[in-house]
Specification:
Two copies of one chain form a homodimer. Chain A is mainly beta and about 170 residues long. The first copy, chain A, has one domain: Jelly Rolls (Sandwich). Chain A has one helix and 16 strands. In chain A, the strands form five sheets. In chain A, strands 1, 9, 10, 12 and 13 form a five-stranded mixed sheet that branches. In chain A, strands 2-11-8-14-5 form a five-stranded antiparallel sheet, with no helix packed on it. The first copy, chain A, starts with 7 loop residues before the first strand and ends with a strand. Chains A and B meet through strand 4, strand 5 and strand 14 of A and strand 4, strand 5 and strand 14 of B. Chains A, B: One of its GO terms (biological process) is purine nucleobase metabolic process. Chains A, B: It catalyses: (S)-ureidoglycolate = urea + glyoxylate. Chains A, B: This is Ureidoglycolate lyase. Chains A, B: Homodimer.
Chain lengths: ~170, ~170
C-alpha cells in the first residue's frame, strides 16, 4: 500500500494531458434558437477512428466502499470516452500517464470533479472506472462501438495499491 | 393559425420515424466495473458521415413565452443531433416528416418528454428548436462538426402557424 491519493481540483489546464473537461466555464458561447438558447460549443470531441461509431449510453454507478481502493486502471486504445454527470453530485477521477503498455504508477493522480463537470478521456488514457461520492449517480457516456478490442486492464502489484484521501 | 398541437407521450415506438429515445427503459444492460456500474448500452448512435467529428456541447435553454408559437422547423442535413436533459425537467419536442426540401406540415407532431428522456434526431429530421417547460434547462448535445452547411430552416406560412396545447 502506498500513501493515499490527494484529490486536486479538476481544471482544464490540469486535466489537459488526459483529455477534455466538459463544462460551460470558459467555453465558446453561441446564441442560438432566436435567443432562447446558448450553445457552449464543442466542449469535447469523440475520437473513434474509421469504421466505428460514436454511441451514447448511460452508466448508472454505485458508490464503492470506503476507503476507495485503487488497485487497477483501464484504457480504451481505440477511442475516447466521455462522462457527463446527469445528477449534479461531485465525483472523482483517477488517471495515470502511459509508460508503454502499462500505466506509469508514479504519475497516478486524482481529480475532484464538481457535479457540473464531465470529462472526455482521450484515446488510450489510463483511468480508474467511474468513481462517485453520492450513493448512486448516472452519467451520459459518449464512446466508441466498432471492431477491435477496446479495453485493456492493468492490475497493480500489491505494494502499489492505494486509496483516496477524502 | 391552425389548432394547437396536443402533446403525446414520448416513446421509442412513436418516435422511431424521427430518431432514437435516450432512456434506460428497455435498454440493453451490461454490468461493468466489477459490479459497481450498469451500462445502458448504445441508446443512440451519432450519424456524422466521413470527414466530420461527433462533438459534445451543452445547450442552456430558456422558456419561450406562452402560448409557445410553432412557426418554423429546422433540420441538420449532414448529421444527427442528440439532446439529453441534465436537470430532470419534462420538456417538449416538435417534429414533422419530410416532403422533399420542406417539412410536411400535415404531419406535425408534439411529444412530451420526461426529464429522464433524451432524443437523438436522425440526420435530416425536421424539428423545432429545443422547447422547455421549466424556466431554464441544460442539455448535453452530441452533434456534428465538419465542412458543409448543416442547418436548414423552414418558416411556416402564417396560416400554418400553431401553438402547443398545455
Amino acid at each position: 500500500m502506498t500513501s493515499p491519493l490527494v484529490p486536486e481540483p479538476l481544471t482544464k489546464a490540469a486535466f489537459a494531458p488526459f483529455g477534455e473537461v466538459i463544462e460551460t466555464e470558459d467555453a465558446e458561447v453561441r446564441i442560438i434558437n432566436q435567443g432562447f438558447a446558448k450553445r457552449f460549443h464543442g466542449l469535447a470531441r469523440a475520437e473513434i477512428g474509421h469504421g466505428a461509431e460514436a454511441i451514447i449510453s448511460i452508466f448508472r454507478a454505485t458508490r464503492r466502499p470506503s476507503p476507495i481502493r485503487i488497485d487497477m486502471l483501464e484504457r480504451h486504445p481505440l477511442g475516447s470516452q466521455a462522462f457527463a454527470p446527469i445528477q449534479p453530485h461531485d465525483w472523482l477521477i483517477v488517471v495515470a500517464e502511459d509508460a508503454g503498455a502499462e500505466p506509469d504508477l508514479a504519475t497516478l493522480r486524482c481529480f475532484y470533479a464538481r457535479g457540473d463537470q464531465g470529462v472526455n478521456y482521450a484515446l488510450g488514457v489510463w483511468h480508474f472506472p467511474v468513481l462517485i461520492l453520492a450513493d448512486a449517480q448516472d452519467f451520459l457516456i459518449v464512446d466508441r462501438e466498432g471492431p477491435g478490442e477496446n479495453l485493456r486492464e492493468f492490475f497493480f502489484p500489491e505494494d502499489a495499491v492505494t486509496t483516496i484521501a477524502l
